[in-house]
Amino acid sequence: MNLIAAVDNKWGIGYKNKLLISIPDDMKFFKEMTTGKVCIMGRNTLDSLPGGRPLDGRINIVLTKDKSFKKNGVVVVNSVDEALDAVKEYNTKDIFVIGGESVYSQFMPYIDTAYITYIDYTYQADKYIENLDKNEHWKMVVESEEQTYFDVEYYYRKYVKA
User: Fold this and answer.
1) Which neighbouring-strand residues pair with 152?
2) Sign (positive or negative) of CA dihedral 60, 97, 44, 157
3) What is the pLDDT along the chain (162 residues), one digit of tens a residue?
4) CATH 3.40.50.620 for the 2-161 domain, yes or no
5) Which candidate, 74, 140, 152, 160, has a CA 20 to 30 Å from the CA of 51?
């Protein structure tokens, strides 16, 4: 199972239910990586998407505590076990956990590959994910050349669980 996220240099991922920064090439990378795949997200992540609509061309699984929540185009689950049951027929390489903070944390034991857009800047953030550079069970196996978006430097990184 995969994790995909954009993080700042303190591994912040969001502020007030929004991304810290929207980098067009990173959005394109996210779309290329996840189209045709399964995306597991929390309710706030779904609500933060344009128009609060599910992602086109993907199977959208939304984890929420709200047992009455329903939305067209999404599979609603109320627990990690229900989510794992909903994806059991798919190849784990085709499953992406896309946020937010709580969902990343709950699925971390099941994730073996992480695609991180590492933004070399500190933003004001109120949501974070685990810093994989500080976890001995994770190894960075790929890092792109430096990318830039105006004056922001960022890198595409791939981590695998050791």
Assistant:
1) 149
2) negative
3) 999 999 999 999 999 999 999 999 999 999 999 999 999 999 999 999 999 999 999 999 999 999 999 999 999 999 999 999 999 999 999 999 999 999 999 999 999 999 999 999 999 999 999 999 999 999 999 999 999 999 999 999 999 998
4) no
5) 152
The 10 Å CB-count burial string (b at 16+, else e) for 95-114 is: bbbbbbbebbebbbebbebb
Can you say whether the dihedral through the CA atoms of 81, 82, 88, 92 is positive or negative? negative
User: Tell me, what's the pLDDT at 35?
Assistant: 98
Distance in angstroms (rounded) separating the CA atoms of residues 46 and 42: 6
Distance CA 8, CA 124 (A): 10
Residue ranges per domain, the chain? 2-161
Give whole-number Cα distances, 129 to 66, 72, 86, 95, 151, in Å. 23, 29, 24, 18, 24
Rounded Cα distance between 119 and 125, Å, is 13
